[in-house]
Write a structure and sequence with these properties.
With 143 residues, the protein is of the alpha+beta class. 27% of the residues lie in helices and 30% in strands. It has a 3-stranded antiparallel β-sheet with strand order 8-7-9, covered by helices on one side. Strand 3 and strand 4 form a beta hairpin. The protein is rod-shaped. The protein binds zinc ion (ZN) (2 copies).
């Protein structure tokens, strides 16, 4: 079967990929991509490992996958930052408390530091760490 080349109007085989007269690409035009470096319409080569598209003329990657991947990364990092801010706002700042404790007999004294969001949390943590000791005082030592 013959068909007409839309570029030079020559009769060419409809199975020809490229017009033998003028080089116009007849088949696979839907796969053509404009290479931003060569400024030429090329059929990109797809290479592993990320199935990224490459220009066959200048052997550099072409948009497509790469751009989508960047957009994806941008959304991902924005999401991570948003979640981090939300968690920080909801949970409040963590502070270091110096907790002094004494045993129930009063003979033994222990001073420890715990990180907590409130004084009551600091007391709970210290008491969990040293069973049998009671908190005398919990003070913030570092903000
Ligand atoms: Zn032609
Ligand atoms: Zn190129």
């Amino acid at each position: 079967m013959l068909t007409e080349c839309p570029e030079c109007k020559r009769q060419v085989s409809d199975s020809a990929e490229v017009c033998p007269g003028c080089g116009y690409r007849l088949l696979g035009r839907e796969n053509l991509v404009l290479c931003p470096r060569c400024k030429a319409q090329v059929i990109p080569q797809v290479r592993p490992p990320w199935r990224r598209k490459w220009c066959p003329l200048c052997s550099r990657p072409i948009g497509g996958m790469r751009t989508r991947f960047r957009v994806f990364l941008a959304f991902l990092s924005a999401g991570v930052i948003a979640v981090a801010i939300l968690v920080a706002v909801l949970s409040g700042p963590t502070q270091t408390y110096r907790v002094s404790m004494s045993s129930e007999s009063g003979n033994s004294v222990v001073v420890t530091t715990v990180r907590a969001r409130s004084e009551s949390e600091a007391r709970r943590r210290a008491e969990a760490e040293y069973p049998g000791y009671r908190v005398n005082e919990a003070i913030v030592v570092w903000r």
